[in-house]
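Q: What does the assembled structure look like for these inputs?
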Amino acid sequence: MTRLTEGIGFGLVTASFLSLASVGFTVQFGIANIFNLAYAQFMLLGAYLAYAISGNRLSIWLALPIVAVMIGILSVAVNRFVYAPFIRRGRALFSMVLVTISVGLAVEYLISTFAGPGTEELLINPGSTLHIAGMILDTSQIVIIAIAATSMLAFHVLLRYTRIGKAMRATSADAALARTCGIPAARIRDLSWFISGLMCGAAGVVLGVNTVFDSTTGSLFLVPIVAAAVLGGVGRPYGAMLGALIVGVGSEVAASFTSPAYKDVIAFGILLVVMVFRPQGILPGALRAEVVVE
Amino acid sequence: MSANWTFYATSVLVFLAIDVTAGLGLNLQFGITGIYNFGFVVFQAVGAYIAAVVSLGPSTASSGQTYILGATLPFPVPWVLGGLAAAALALPIGAVCLRRLRGDYQAMVLLVFALLSTTVVTDYQGLFNGSGGLFGVPNPLSNSLGLSAVGYAWFYVGLAGVIAIGVYFFVERLSKSPFGRVLRSIRENEVAAEAAGINVYRTRLKVFVVGAFLAGLSGAVMVSYVGAWSPGSWSYAETFVLLAALIVGGVGNNRGAVLGVFLLPILVVQVVGFIPLSPGDAETVASLQWVVIAFVTLFSLWLWPRGALPEYRSLWAARRRRERAFDAGATVATQEIGLGAVHVEEVPR
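A:
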């Protein structure tokens, strides 16, 4: 029983990280209709930026919003100057996954060039250990959960209760139709990339707090992120939140009964099962993933 | 030529042959059939591991390595088994990933599969000796031939070269055959291919398995030459070198694939790898190589998306069309579908 509750506790922390990461990933798919395979590398860049600007001088919790904004701006720039021109130029000639993975590879190895091959860690004072309903969490983990929960709530309010959110949903559903309705689709698209970049950066900092990392860590985290996004149906933010919760808690609980090495295997198992039985994700509705011909 | 230069030249030639074998396998999947196999390197790795463990002998405590299936099989058997093992793995993976999903979705899942495989092999020591990897893999026939070291190096160049040339003719024949036209038709327009009576899923699965066999074979040739194999040698990015080679050389054109392999994995990776550097610089250069490859791919996709040697399909289709129009008049349209020359321009959404 204690194992189960402890597993759920760790699972909530993992799910917090995954929700930030996979919602950002899925928003990018929704708005641009591409899988941004460079996402994990930008996340890792966030962790390195936090490492660079925090040092001993600045608290990591203060660095987090700064890094988030930096990655947000970078995401907008990459979309404006790399992805969007490529999309305009050649949908018929090649697939955008080639472009995004090239960008990801360039970022990963530029990090490796500048930061060297060693591992880094965002050192943080874990604070006091708390026991809540059988879960053992330290203060920093509670803060992580709080950041994720607040971000998700804020994103929900933005999407549902503001005109900008409505415009974002409309652009994601059908950009051409949104434009004819007078929505400035280009600006909304930039905004969506910025918001997804914020989440990407925040997820990167959280990742750095949770684990030691080196230049290859980012790509490894693509496994649970993709699993969570696909589980909820790619392009659907609420699905990704649910997917993050299921993948995060599921893999940690299963790992606490077996071995931590199984975490990614379990996430991949979930991904395979979803691919076979429900490639459109667990939420009812959209069938986007099953579009056969672009 | 001094002995050092001979070894240098022979090893570049061996790697050229290995990369040509693998590149042609990937061209069959990616270039001709349009399967974005971002997990290609996994099949190469499986071929290498299996070929290694069935030639290393039983895993004992004294050898310092733990692995499955230890055996000492005579020369060509490990290579064949390596290819077959990769093909056997491709069957279930392809069965799940090649279902009716968008191509980029499949690519993403195969990439995730490659990332996971590295973790799994690293974490489970008992499988293929974990992160340490396998070492001391014997060179095939090195004892029975009685050649000098230099002689053996040239012998291996010949061996790998024969395989690469054989694979070239195999893939070339396959892609020029009616089956090859079926594959192109799937790449160009899945719905039209399906409407013409092609079972798209099964055909793609076949190509996936055949390509995986070639990947496994190339891995086996590599491991027997290098003598060691560990998760460090097959990160997901290794697939990308070959993909980049195809894009630069000419997607769907086997000669383009060979040219691309010569330009990228050989000139940028192997040749640079032999330049003597201090350890710290070597790390930086290795990282910069990847950055260069990524940028070369981006520029190539932007400037010449069809590659240096483009596939000759437009000419081919046009000539066919003229001939058939002359011979058969109005039956052109229906026959073209069977020939896979359906050319539907995509409308930007």
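Chain B touches chain A through 53 residues (CB under 8 Å).
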